Amino acid sequence: SPQEIVSGDSEEENSGVNLMDFSDEILLHILSYVPSTDLVLNVRRTCRKLATLCLDKSLTHTVLLQKDYKVNKDKVKQLMRDIGKEIYQLNMAGCYWLPSSTIDHVTRCKNLVKLNLSGCHVTSLRLSKMLSTLQHLRSLAIDVNPGFDASQLSSECKATLSRVSELKQTLFTPSYGVVPCCTSLEKLLLYFEILDRSREGFMLSGQLMVGESNVPHYQNLRVFYARLAPGYVNQEVVRLYLAVLSDRTPENLHAFLISAPGSFAETGATKNLLDSMARNARLDALQLPKAWINGSGLLQHLKFNNPFYFSFSRCTLSGGHLIQRVINGGKDLKSLTSLNLSGCVHCLAPESLFRKAEDDIDSSILESLVVSCCNLRHLNLSAAHHHSSESIGNHLCQLLSRLKHLLSLALPVCSITNVAATVEKPPTASNLVPQTFGRKVRIGIQTCPRNLADQANQKIESSVFWALMGSLRFLETLEIIGSSFSSAMPRNEPAIRNSLPPCVRAQSVGDSEVAAISQLTYLQSLTLAQLPNILTGSGLVSIGLQCQQLRTLSLANLGMMGKVGYMSALMDMLKHCKCLRDLRLEQPYFCAGAQFFQALSHCSALQRLCIVSRSGTLQSDAVMSFMANCLEVIMCHMFMGESLTACRNLQQSIVRSFQADRPALNVVIFPLLHEDLTEVIRDVPMRHLDEITLFKSRVAEEPPNLWW
Questions:
Q1: In CA terms, which of 164, 182, 273, 314 is 20 to 30 Å from 476?
Q2: Which residue numbers delimit the F-box domain (predicted)?
Q3: Is the pLDDT of residue 261 over 50?
């Protein structure tokens, strides 16, 4: 604590070491890890030396409040009053708990250059008043909510917007937002979160925008990024944004990215846009809807400069086209640092016309990819069957081990198994039964289980996956996801009641493979989904012991579907996860009882918890005790099999007991299969919904450093 730093009775002084004796450079580095509000409002009041250091430009230049869940309106007010003029970059993204009046205090930051208010409550009038005073602003991120009216923006506000070169805009209603006012745009990021129906049940239409008089100004645009949530209205609205681009492609455009789920059909206007890009642009980053790439010769005509990001997620692009048209026949592509091939089922095969998704990959294609893109840091190969052949030395894991710079990796479960253990094995009767949630169904478990102790203690150092984990020592994010896995948690539709069985090749993947992950000393984020052969979960304990920097853990559908066989190991694991901040568990029949929450209470840094479990149960007293013990927890989402009354009572008890001391507290406890679940989901803050509540692969989801 700040008091201990200057206390004569501190451990440092007793041992002959006083923190205040360190150089200013070292102290500034230490203080850079302290939240800005604590620095200015607490630490600087402890002694004269810290009072000076806490106001150093290196600490006040950039203020990050985006995950300071303890900050409130009064703290922001005092912070802006004390150092407002010294702040050049302010990030308040996701501060959903702060009242909209908090934004009024940002006007004290006269020298602001970058401002992020995504996820904050800002009205048109408040935005106008604030921006009118920020004449140096060049980068802005805001939400556009129902009721936004651009006609309420003052001329001074529009003058500020005319100088903004970077804009990130999240749309919850059909609108151009402030885009028409930003006449100097170089980077435009658009997130479309418009629902097809209003809260009152009325159908929405993207054509509501037609009456707006101004149009976007894209002449200086270098980066265009659009991410669409499911829904046809989002597609209608983004087409209106693209219409201006189709008339004339900006000369300096070097990144064009559209992330759209499902089917997003190509139109005449979008075809004109792509043709224009092929003629005039040299791109460094590319992502397009699958319908715009599939069956077209577009990639053959696009020109690339020094590309750093490609995403061909869910496209039917074959490996032959990938090598020939994107990697230029295997030429040097060292500039590429991030590649997303998630759901690209034929990307490692020479052609896709007569190929089945489960056929073996062509290792020569993957080898060309690895050799050409040797500096890859982020690679996503999930949501596909990438089966290696029996050729010695050509297993997918062996080839990927050459990518020494990888920081994040996503793989399908069936790609990491040893070929000799799975190939030529006919499917058993249990493999052919659809995966249901009955208690007696034992999907993926052998008729005669192995000796559990032997399996838990074995380090199969000869396995290709063990070797891969050993070679990627600096990996920070790892996702191992079943190729047919789908989460029961909905986006804009009812909860999924049935899921597909795991791939036959994945049947042998279990505790030993999980134990191999414990070699990743610097691992910060781990996702494991649909690993059918998890028997005891012994590998989880190894991860808890060895991966001490683990901050995010997501486990889904491990082992038997009718029984949580790894519960004991999970509880042992949690006792060692001192840095864990986010935990997501998705498992049918999960029992969130006293023992589980007692183990979870050892995770003293935990901030967010999400449990999704069909027919799952929870113990209310245990939840309340856990919330009382874990003071950092600000998000508790549980979607289980309890009654609506029981869920509401527990939710109200948590809010009543802890909301006052935890301003950011967000609690949603609701029956998973209730018909109103989608209405409940729409009220969840976007930060939590996008980062933890909804399951998805996040490796190479966006270009690195897309926004600050």
A1: 314
A2: 16-63
A3: yes
